[in-house]
């Protein structure tokens, strides 16, 4: 038996059970009493209505202790209820509310600027009140930084580096190539202007040297007249071909013959040969041809006799 008790004590704790209920310390509660209102109605009616002559000693005194004890004895109490449970729950709820973050709906306040001793002027000197030694050290520091910056490797500092030009798309622009292209374009324009000027000068010089009177044996005039083409020239078929000046011409339609129209307007040179009209031109020509045929037939019938 003892071994079992030892085993239970070792595994599950002590085997002895305390059957005696622990006495709970009574909590202080607010005294209250149930008073019948009808019992004191008659007494309060006899009290004088004058508030200045009220006698406080004449008021009825009520002993609440006996009523409190009697009410406690009549109160329902659940079995095994712990009286300390409710205060503990209230305390836990209060702690959780205290720990919960409180949302601040007030407008944001401007933070005060903290003055730092690391602020410096544009020259690099520190600001604020300083001693002579501090100012001297500050000047020496700036002088040292300036020397180090000047003695820095050009590959790192970017000194004397070539300027890189880019267009709006981010591509590099070759300035030398652009300058050469601009120079070539200017030279060509000058050359064309020179040619035009020289040609005009030569024409004016030729006109100035021409004689005022022109005779029928003028060779230059005869050659100029022969080189011209005339539509009613009867000797144009057997004479030598005349030189034609090349003139700029627009492209024309070279396909199969298009359907006729009232105004004889040729189609464009990009036309694919498909008639996409509403058929008015075709109906117009058919009607006109039918009318012409009827007129000729009527005339032939009229002169048949």
TrEMBL record:
Compositional bias segments (type: Basic and acidic residues): 96-106, 144-167
GO biological process terms held by the UniProt record: mRNA splicing, via spliceosome
InterPro entries, sorted: Bud13, CWC26_splicing_factor
GO molecular function per UniProt: RNA binding
Region called Disordered, residue ranges: 1-32, 44-132, 144-169, 232-267
Any one Gene Ontology cellular component term annotated for this protein: U2-type spliceosomal complex
Family: Belongs to the CWC26 family.
Protein name (record): 3230_t:CDS:1
Lineage: Eukaryota, Fungi, Fungi incertae sedis, Mucoromycota, Glomeromycotina
């Amino acid at each position: 038996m003892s071994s079992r008790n030892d085993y239970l004590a070792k595994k599950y704790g002590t085997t002895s059970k305390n059957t005696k209920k622990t006495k709970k310390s009574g909590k202080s509660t607010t005294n209250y009493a149930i008073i019948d209102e009808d019992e004191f109605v008659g007494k309060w009616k006899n009290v004088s209505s004058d508030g200045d002559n009220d006698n406080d000693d004449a008021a009825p005194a009520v002993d609440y202790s006996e009523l409190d004890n009697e009410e406690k004895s009549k109160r329902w109490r659940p079995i095994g209820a712990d009286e300390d449970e409710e205060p503990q729950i209230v305390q836990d709820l209060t702690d959780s509310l205290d720990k919960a973050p409180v949302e601040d709906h007030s407008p944001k306040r401007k933070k005060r600027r903290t003055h730092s001793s690391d602020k410096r002027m544009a020259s690099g000197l520190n600001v604020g009140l300083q001693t002579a030694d501090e100012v001297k050290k500050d000047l020496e520091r700036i002088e040292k930084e300036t020397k180090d910056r000047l003695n820095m490797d050009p590959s790192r500092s970017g000194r004397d580096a070539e300027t890189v030009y880019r267009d709006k798309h981010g591509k590099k622009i070759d300035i030398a190539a652009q300058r050469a292209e601009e120079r070539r374009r200017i030279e060509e324009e000058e050359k064309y202007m020179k040619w035009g000027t020289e040609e005009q000068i030569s024409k004016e010089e030729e006109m100035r040297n021409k004689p005022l009177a022109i005779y029928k044996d003028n060779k230059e005039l005869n050659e100029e007249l022969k080189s011209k083409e005339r539509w009613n020239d009867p000797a144009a078929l057997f004479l030598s071909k005349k030189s034609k000046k090349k003139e700029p011409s627009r492209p024309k339609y070279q396909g199969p013959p298009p359907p006729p129209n009232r105004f004889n307007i040729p189609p464009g040179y990009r036309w694919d040969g498909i008639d996409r009209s509403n058929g008015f031109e075709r109906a117009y020509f058919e009607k006109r041809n039918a009318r012409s045929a009827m007129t000729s037939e009527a005339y032939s019938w009229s002169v048949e006799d």
